[in-house]
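Give me structure tokens for this 162-residue protein.
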Amino acid sequence: MDAPEVHPSARVVGAVYGQILATAIVATLSEDSAASASEIFFGVAVAMLVFWLAHVYAEAVAVRLDRDQPLTVPEVWRVAVQEWPEAQAAIPALAALGLGWVGVLTRDAATDLAIALGVVALFGWGFLIARRSRLSPWGTAGAVALNGGFGLAIVALKVIVH
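Here you go.
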């Protein structure tokens, strides 16, 4: 028996969650003034990998509970692929942090860029969701504001803590 097919909206859930998570991790790690851009890069990469693996495990357990036999390797692989958008969401932040690591940007500029990319992506997800849902212009503005608001809340918390 195959693992259930995943609706494309489930991948969006992972991507949006991953974007919020990656942005929050960058904001949190950047508060340690002793942390270098490379340390923040690896911190974000490892944290996102751990969260992705946790979601793969949790989803595999949930699928297993719905059946009488263990999942096969291809079924577990399918679950891992289905959860991959969560990890992919960190790629823009990691690219920005990589620029800090190699010295193209300062550490602070790299973390600021990583956070900005996360906020812009969240606004973009809000717009995409609104357009796909055929919302009115006001509904679109609300969806964009709601999604982008998560990113702006992360920035606000970073400013308050800093």
